[in-house]
C-alpha cells in the first residue's frame, strides 16, 4: 500500500506543473537574452550562440553604493535579466539596496519571486505581512540574512545613524516589483479617488494630497 501511494505521489510530481519553483527550468546550457528581439515569449528570445560573449554574463553595477538622496532615502539597483542578458532562463537575479540613515525601501511585493537579503552594512528593521495580516518583523545587522516569501508585502527601514546596504537574491530572472503606495496613488490612468477614499476610509481631499505627493517626478 505504501509503495502504491509513493508511486502515485511520484507520478503526480511528473505530471503536475512546476508549482513549487518560480521561473521554469531551462532546456539548454545558455539562452542569452536578445533584448531587442520582436519575438515575445515567456522570457526573452535567445541571441545567436556566435554572438554570445563574457559581457553577457557580467555586471559591475552592484560594486558601488547607489545614490540615496531621494524622498525615500533608499535606492534599489537591480541586476536582473534586463541588465545581465545571460540570466535569461536561469531563474535567478540579484539587487543591491542602499539606505541613507532613516531611509525606507517602502512596502512592495515581487509577484514572481521569493527574496533573501544579506546585510552588507548597517542595521535594518525589516518585515513582511502574511495573507492573514500578521507582521513578521526583525532588526537585522551586518552579515545577517532575512527572507521575504514570494508575493508578500515587505519593507526595510534604516533606523540607524549610519548608511546601510543589502544584497538581495531572487528566484526569478525578473521578479517584478509592485510598490504599494505608488501602485495605488500614482497609477496611469489614476485609480479613482472614490475607490481610494472608501478603501482607506478617508476623504477625497486626503486622497488628492497623497496623489500629489507621489506623482511621478515628485
Ligand atoms: C528589497 O526588498 C528589494 O526588493 O530589493
Ligand atoms: Mn523586495
From TrEMBL:
<comment type="similarity">
    <text>Belongs to the germin family.</text>
</comment>
<feature type="binding site">
    <location>
        <position position="110"/>
    </location>
    <ligand>
        <name>Mn(2+)</name>
    </ligand>
</feature>
<feature type="binding site">
    <location>
        <position position="105"/>
    </location>
    <ligand>
        <name>oxalate</name>
    </ligand>
</feature>
<feature type="binding site">
    <location>
        <position position="115"/>
    </location>
    <ligand>
        <name>Mn(2+)</name>
    </ligand>
</feature>
<keyword id="KW-0964">Secreted</keyword>
<dbReference type="GO" id="GO:0030145">
    <property type="term" value="F:manganese ion binding"/>
</dbReference>
<feature type="domain" description="Cupin type-1">
    <location>
        <begin position="60"/>
        <end position="208"/>
    </location>
</feature>
<comment type="function">
    <text>May play a role in plant defense. Probably has no oxalate oxidase activity even if the active site is conserved.</text>
</comment>
<dbReference type="InterPro" id="IPR019780">
    <property type="entry name" value="Germin_Mn-BS"/>
</dbReference>
<keyword id="KW-1015">Disulfide bond</keyword>
<feature type="disulfide bond">
    <location>
        <begin position="31"/>
        <end position="46"/>
    </location>
</feature>
<keyword id="KW-0464">Manganese</keyword>
<keyword id="KW-0479">Metal-binding</keyword>
<feature type="binding site">
    <location>
        <position position="110"/>
    </location>
    <ligand>
        <name>oxalate</name>
    </ligand>
</feature>
<dbReference type="GO" id="GO:2000280">
    <property type="term" value="P:regulation of root development"/>
</dbReference>
<dbReference type="GO" id="GO:0009506">
    <property type="term" value="C:plasmodesma"/>
</dbReference>
<keyword id="KW-0732">Signal</keyword>
<dbReference type="GO" id="GO:0010497">
    <property type="term" value="P:plasmodesmata-mediated intercellular transport"/>
</dbReference>
<feature type="binding site">
    <location>
        <position position="108"/>
    </location>
    <ligand>
        <name>Mn(2+)</name>
    </ligand>
</feature>
<keyword id="KW-0052">Apoplast</keyword>
<dbReference type="Pfam" id="PF00190">
    <property type="entry name" value="Cupin_1"/>
</dbReference>
<dbReference type="InterPro" id="IPR001929">
    <property type="entry name" value="Germin"/>
</dbReference>
<dbReference type="GO" id="GO:0048046">
    <property type="term" value="C:apoplast"/>
</dbReference>
<feature type="binding site">
    <location>
        <position position="115"/>
    </location>
    <ligand>
        <name>oxalate</name>
    </ligand>
</feature>
<dbReference type="InterPro" id="IPR011051">
    <property type="entry name" value="RmlC_Cupin_sf"/>
</dbReference>
<dbReference type="InterPro" id="IPR006045">
    <property type="entry name" value="Cupin_1"/>
</dbReference>
<feature type="binding site">
    <location>
        <position position="154"/>
    </location>
    <ligand>
        <name>Mn(2+)</name>
    </ligand>
</feature>
<protein>
    <recommendedName>
        <fullName>Germin-like protein</fullName>
    </recommendedName>
</protein>
<feature type="signal peptide">
    <location>
        <begin position="1"/>
        <end position="22"/>
    </location>
</feature>
<dbReference type="InterPro" id="IPR014710">
    <property type="entry name" value="RmlC-like_jellyroll"/>
</dbReference>
<comment type="subunit">
    <text>Oligomer (believed to be a pentamer but probably hexamer).</text>
</comment>
